[in-house]
Structure formats: C-alpha cells, structure tokens
Fold this sequence. Notes:
about 35% helix; 2 strands
Amino acid sequence: MKYEIAELLDHPPQNTPTLVAEMNHHRRHEIANLKSKPASLVHGRSTAIPSVGPLATIYLLLALCAGKHTFAQQPETHSSQPAINRQLRLPDQPFDYGKVDAPASLRKQLQPLDNTPADNPITHQGATLGRVLFYDTKLSANGTTSCASCHLQAAGFAEPKPTSVGFEGKPVARNSMALINLRFFASGKMFWDQRAGSLEKQVLMPIEDPIEMGHHLPTLIRQLAQDPLYPPLFQNAFGDKQITSDRIAKALAQFVRSMTSFGSRYDHGLEQTGDPRKPFPNFTDQENLGKEQFFGRALCAHCHLPKHDDPQSPQWLIFQLQTASNNGIDSSDAPNTDPGVATTTGKPTDQGKFKASSLRNLKQTAPYMHDGRFHTIDQVIEHYNWSVRPHPNLDPLLEDFAANGLALPEVPKVALAAFLETLSDEEFLADPRFSDPFVRSPNE
C-alpha cells in the first residue's frame, strides 16, 4: 500500500473498498493511541485534529478521495440561501398599493394612459407578493441577484451605473431603466427596444436572460413551492397556494405598477396654480426661469409632456414620451451602434430609436441614455444644445437642433437643470411600501 498523497487524492486505487475494509481491521488497534492536537477552525467550528498512525492516515485519505469523487459526479443545481434562515418584515395589514397620489384636479388625465389589464388589477396582497419577489435573490440562478439589484429605490428604481452587471458578473448591454409610473405608459411596451408587449411579459424576461439572472422558470417555481415563505403569500394574493409563472408575472407587474410618483415640488406647485405655465409660488426665481425654458424655447415639453398644450386634454404629469424616438445621440454611420427598437422589429425605420425613461426623479436616475453615456443633467442639456447628430430616423422636432443647435444661453441652461431637479419625489424614494422586506441582519 505505497501510495503517494497526491496520487491518492487524484487517482484513488480501484480496490478502494477492499483497502478500506482491510484498514478497518487494523484501525481498531491504532485508535486507542490517537492523541488530539490543537483545534483548527473549519467552517466556523472548532474541530480537533487527532494524531493518527500510518494506516489511519491512509484510511482518511481514501475517505477524502471517495468523497471528492462522489461529489464531483453530482449534477449542478441552482443555489440559493436556505429558506429556513430567511425572514420577512411585512405589516400586519398590507400596505395600500392602489392609491395614486396625484393632484385630484389632474388625476383624470391619467385614466386614458393606464395600461393595467382587466385580468390583473392591483391588489394589496398581490403587490405585497410582488414586492417580496422583487427583492428576492432566489430569482437568479446562483442566488446572488434580484430585480432590486439593478433597480434601486434610492436611485428612482434605476441603477447608478452606465450598464448593469449580471448574476455572474458579466456586463449587460444597456442601462437599467427607471421603474417610475410605468402604469401610465399607454402602449405598455417595455425595455429600451420595446421587445416586451406588456409589463407582465417584461418582468419575467430578466429572470431567464442568460446574462442578467440566468434562471429557469420551471426550476424557480419548484424552489418557491419548497420555500415556506411563498405558499402563504400566493394564497393571500390569488386564493390558493399554487405557484405558476403567470402568477409570478402578475404579482411582479402589480408591484411595479404601484410605483407611482407624483409628490415632487413640481406637483405641489402645479396643485397650487393649476397651470405649469404660471410661476409656482414654491419655486425659486431660477427654477421658474427653468420651467419657462422647458415649456418654451428649449421645447422639452413638446416631447416629454405629450398634448401638454391641448386645452381639451392638458397633459402636465407624466414627463415621458409615449413612443420610441431617435434623439440624435449617434449618427447613422457611427460604428457599433445599438440598433434600438430595430433589434425587435428589424425595420430600418426603427434604427436608433429607443423608448425614453421618465424625467421623474431625474436627478436620482443618472446616468442617462440607453448606454449611460451622460452622467449629469448638464451633459444631457448640452447634447440638445449643440450635439444632436443627423440621422435618417431623427425625431422631426430635433431636425433644427441637428442643423443649428438649440443654442440656449448659459443662464437659462443652468436654470433648466434646476427646474428638472424639482421633479424629484423624496417621499417616493423612501416610501416603505417599496422598500426591501427581507431582514438582512439579526439587528434589523
């Protein structure tokens, strides 16, 4: 039995069971002579290491070899933290997820834009389940990444990185869009390239994306069914404990749709005046000047507040383009450019067009554009001021910008940036309804 240690570890003898049986006979005679050596820390536990004779040493090596090779043959499984160690902090009575805190006088503007489907109305229990799913890293293949990993509440449910990072540390191609007021994006088409036809479809796609979360929905469903946290939550949300991909999608979509933000200083000023073109009493002179630029010379409202100037249907709340657009950040001949919506449709007329994020909480949702190329609001304004590039699919409202520039002087340009910062909703950014429900440390 002359085996080198390295050989034993990498190439255990073919007659390992016979050798082990033989050594068991001798081991009984040597075990009485074992003497303990100082303990070593193994996986956080103090374990005594006995002094062993040569046969016992070989016995232990063979046991290690057998364990090593047996483990290597086990199929790879999706890992996640043990459910027994996971705790939730949820209120006894669920939060109210159906309310929309928009000025009452203007709330009727939102109704035609609401994309909530008839078969998935927002319920308090459904959105509560969606909240837990949204923050659960178990939705990724290796248990490291949740929806909230790339959509941070403090960042307006966007991400403060140019592009996201997937569950294995690989870069995602685009920036994570802000999840604000998606309930009132009338077309319901989601992602920069609008590849999802509804919010219910959108919320499942990152879970199975091979870079983003890398999971497999049937596997995830089995995991959630075995997790003691989830059957009661599905029972409360849907009337029974059955877990399906459709119910996962509906719960996540309810939670995301409930993320409505209408509590900014702009909203308070609008409630006081009833018209954004009037000076707001809660604004500084600079902010009111910036608001004048937004609705006036800078032409921002023409795109970001559709129908804002229609006296029959004033739209003063959403701050989001309802259709994809090309805003001239790249020329048509620029190398390696993202095709945008054309990725989904294959149409040349969609080349370079993207769904636009809301301007709500703009200060918190940096960086900007689909690739996060602009890090500040000033850089975005400067793009429209002098850097709009010609493109066959350029939005017609920007054609003059491409030819002559916006040429906004410095004082109004700085004022415009100050106005855009008034769209921040501090209450929304700290609203406990949208916070992480998991207890992450014993002291929480």
